[in-house]
UniProtKB/TrEMBL annotation:
Source lineage: Eukaryota, Metazoa, Chordata, Craniata, Vertebrata
Organism: Tricholaema leucomelas (pied barbet)
Keywords: Lipoprotein, Membrane, Methylation, Palmitate, Prenylation, Protein transport, Transport
Protein name as it appears in the record: YKT6B protein
SUPFAM superfamilies: SNARE-like (SSF64356)
Main location, first listed in the record: membrane
Length: 137
């Protein structure tokens, strides 16, 4: 069971953009890591773009399962995991991350934010906590 990425995005009109992301591509060879990370980012943006506001879904893309939650306030989260990782845990993680993000990052920053401008550092911590496949106690 493995998580590969955890992303927070903004579903703007007309475009979706990445606000913050954390990746674990250590299981890939050194030479594949940047292209895998690019693929994970692109796939996350595409899935949010195709999802309606206020929805949750799990989408299979190649050998990955992408779990997406787009809130009605246009804030979205995506977890990319392997097929063995329990979807329920992924959605619990997304709920926590989106709630925490919306408390720490002012809503006015969402439409214009980018990974370089948004100051939110908890994604890497969440990704490592949930990497084992079970929620922390």
């Amino acid at each position: 069971m493995r998580l590969y990425s955890l992303s927070v995005l903004y579903k703007g009109d007309p475009k979706v953009h990445l606000l913050k992301a954390a990746f674990d591509v250590s299981s890939f060879s050194f030479f594949q890591r940047s292209s895998v990370q690019e693929f994970l980012t692109f796939t996350s943006q595409l899935i949010v773009e195709r999802s309606q506001l206020g929805t949750r879904a799990s989408v299979k893309e190649q050998e990955y399962l992408c779990h997406v939650h787009v809130r009605s306030d246009s804030l979205a989260g995506v977890v990319v995991a392997d097929a063995e990782y329990p979807p329920r845990v992924c959605f619990t993680l997304l709920d926590k991350v989106l709630e925490d993000f919306s408390r720490q990052v002012p809503r006015i920053e969402w439409p214009s934010g980018s990974p370089g401008t948004v100051s939110y550092s908890a994604l890497d911590e969440y990704l490592s906590k949930y990497q084992v496949g079970l929620p922390p106690r």
